[in-house]
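Feature request disguised as a bug: please show the residue count (321) next to CARD domain-containing protein in the output. Example input:
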Amino acid sequence: MDTVRRMRLQTLREKIVQDVHVEYILDYLISKDVLSEDEMERIKGEKTRKDQTRHLLDILPKKNIDAFEHFVQALKGPYPWLSEQLEAEGPESYQIEEKSFFDSLLLGGLPQSPPHNVERKEKVEEVRQHLHSLKRGHYVVLHGMTGSGKSCLAAAALDNKQLVIEKFKGAVYWIGVGDINTERSGDLLCHMTDLMEKLSHHPEVELKRQVQSSTSINGARESLRRYFTSDALREGLLILDDVSSPEVIEAFDVGCKILVTTKDSWVMKSVEGRQCLVKVSEGFLEQESLCLMAKCVGVDISQLPPQAKKIHKLCKGNATG
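Example output, currently without the count:
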């Protein structure tokens, strides 16, 4: 189940516990394979009606998205007011989605935009389009010189609720790998272990899926593969920022969707045919340069003097020129 639906259940949990008698909906949930016979017996084994409902609500978030839809359908007959609230797209639902989106970025370790960041709208949209069509086991690669803004571009592209929640099911994980010295295998293994630690805390990863840290790169790679085949993480996105070695790509080639930033496109040689290369130029467009100048001096673009455009042309759009 995705984060938004899980949070809807959490928000309405007390109302559901107060109103629902599980005996009216269990048969339907069993018929739709939402619950197993064993789970049904454990629910019925609870002493009170409310405890039975609480037990059901503890189980549902660990199921897939279909479980939520079947639960809503089961409620429509006996409890239509609850099914309507779970399906509602009003202000409360919007707040749930906003909170879910923010939590996804926070838990995934995505960086905040710098104070004077300028959104390169055309490039951001190009990257988002590639991410929308990204398949499991494939890569979107942002390639450009040091200082060209690859990391900012990656973060800006993912600052999109629809993309993160609907396409990647709220599972996006940012790993900075620029400090890895591949001559020391411990560096690479440490970053792989850090990723496993993040994945293990995903609220929808079943305990049986959680794996112990490995003492070898091969073992860690297999563990990561197991995580990214779980229902919760199957559509997730891994971001490898500042890759400088093909060994990093080989280690993290675990079958998930991956966004890479790098100044050396040759590091992708081991996954040739599975990558989409996006060239990131160093210079800004004129409007982007003007936006940056305006932010730096704290005025609106319209208040900039005529010399601002001349500065852009002189520096050829290079903010450090």
